[in-house]
């Protein structure tokens, strides 16, 4: 029994720097709720990930998905999951990809924005013009998991990884991209394609893109081959607005996007089931970063910004705006910076600085 305004969150801190950055998100969301007064969080933690795997042989319990599905959760906060001791594909297929697919989180929303006071490696050319929203298809395409290996270990070995593009799956990602553009006052949608060399799936992708685009005459549309679009992220990111991409292409473009925005430690994501039939999932796009894990120096902003996307999804726009404003202000002032941004501030100190800023702006 919960009163109005109580959001139930599943929290999976994950591996490496996850247990360092996720607590900062929790502290921040909790203090926002206290400051706001109109809502609160009810948190349930799950210790799933690599340690669980090394103990139990699985990344999460066999009824893990059912637990999340039936728990009445409004959202899932997930830290990075991955560890050098376990092959990456085992980790991904043991937790994250089943979550995305089972909960039909078909939108992977990834803002690529250069925040104030942050230096892009492109800084000389583009002082402050990066503001892209990538809409990545998140349940099918190249990561559908269809394929197999035969004659393993012999000289006749064959590996097949098929892509799956359905009309339903392709239409809904395109429509979301155009709706997003319209509702957020953006002007253009660029589709990442490779229809010159992939004559079935990507030609289909282009067809559906054009069909859906025709329903949105107020939004400009264009398509570009993924190879040259990647180059464009570097040479003229200011020319991009909303970018819609398949699972693989979106994955690659958004790491590139994080790099041009100054640090992997800043980039957030939302894995959305827009119809809210299943819980959506919010996660920094970075990995577990074993090289800096345990040192308390990871940048918590990617995780905090992912929490901001959660607030927006919950409809708590006022709190979301306050959090983003505080992040931007602290970065702009430049006093609190983790080592990835050239400073010596710790994870917790940067989190504290942002929370203090929120209080002074509230
Ligand atoms: P995984 O195998 O889980 O993907 P990874 O080592 O590949 O982990 P990534 O997150 O992909 O880690 O990032 C690559 C590098 O970027 C890290 O090794 C780390 O140095 C840096 N990095 C990532 N996230 C952060 C962060 N939050 N703060 C500071 N540096 C980070
Ligand atoms: Mg990685």
From TrEMBL:
Q: Which keywords belong to this entry?
A: Manganese, Metal-binding, NAD, Oxidoreductase
> Record's InterPro entries?
ICDH/IPMDH, IsoCit/isopropylmalate_DH_CS, IsoPropMal-DH-like_dom, TTC_DH
The UniProt entry, under PANTHER family, shows: D-MALATE DEHYDROGENASE [DECARBOXYLATING]
For this chain, the family text in UniProt reads: Belongs to the isocitrate and isopropylmalate dehydrogenases family.
Show the catalytic activity: (R)-malate + NAD(+) = pyruvate + CO2 + NADH
On whether Manganese is a keyword of this UniProt record, the answer is yes
- The reply to whether Amino-acid biosynthesis figures as a keyword in the UniProt entry is no
- Coiled coil spans: none
User: Which superkingdom does the taxonomy of this entry point to?
Assistant: Bacteria
Pfam families, per this entry?
Iso_dh (PF00180)
Write the signal peptide boundaries.
none
Protein's name in the database: D-malate dehydrogenase (decarboxylating)
Q: What is its EC number?
A: 1.1.1.83
NCBIfam families registered for this protein in UniProt = TTC
Reported cofactor(s) = Mn(2+); Mg(2+)
Q: Where is the Isopropylmalate dehydrogenase-like domain?
A: 8-354
What is the organism field in this record?
Ktedonobacter robiniae
* SUPFAM superfamilies given in the database record: Isocitrate/Isopropylmalate dehydrogenase-like (SSF53659)
